[in-house]
Amino acid sequence: LARWHSRPKENFECLIVEGGDYLLKGASSWVQVGAEKRLLKLGVKVVKNYRIAHISETEIKDASNPAILYDVLVWTAGVKANEFVKALGLELQKADTLIVDEFFRVKTLKNVFAIGDIAYNFNKKIGRPAPMTAQAAIKQGRQLAGIIKSVINKKKTWPYIFKNNPFIIPLGGKYALADLGFLKIEGFLGWVMRSATTLRYFFSILSFFTALKLWIKGRVIYLRNDL
After folding, report:
1. Do 173 and 217 have their domain in common?
2. Second label for 16, Cα 20 to 30 Å away, from 55, 77, 129, 213?
3. How far is 69 from 67, CA to CA, in rounded Å?
4. Residues 168, 173, 178, CA angle at the centre, nearest 5°?
């Protein structure tokens, strides 16, 4: 912005306000610490444990901290279950999610299952629920299909065990953090891996030439903005 509008960098400030005590909830601690370190290096300020309770046209406030002034606000408030679950009259957990066991069975109901954003699937081994992400929902859907088939055929079912999905996040410039579980990569190589992953995803949903064209267009825009 400073370059585009021919203004001193000191005239601009980028601030991330987080309601919890760390960024990127659901990611590994390595990603959380690395992301914050990278953002601070880029000059981005981070405010944690700030739960927004009120918003006006010029400021945000929480219950116990001073107001924060802003000119442009980008709101990313996370995920919440569909409103219809409230009408079911069942016990709900965080973000209005249905409590399920390790076989995705809804608490107190027989042969009723829930997965994805509406399910609260707590993993005792890691001390937290499965994340409300598309990657986790896809894996849950595949396993639930097998569970239902086993129930119909009266065969043994296997519990769902959440494992951290590979996580790659770009953080300005040709820099990204890649947490593959068995391997952790940061910097330029992480950025290359991110680009390759994007191309692979495009190939999975589009024709070869359409995917390649879209990927190249995205790289050009990304590199132009990064100059």
Report:
1. yes
2. 129
3. 7
4. 15
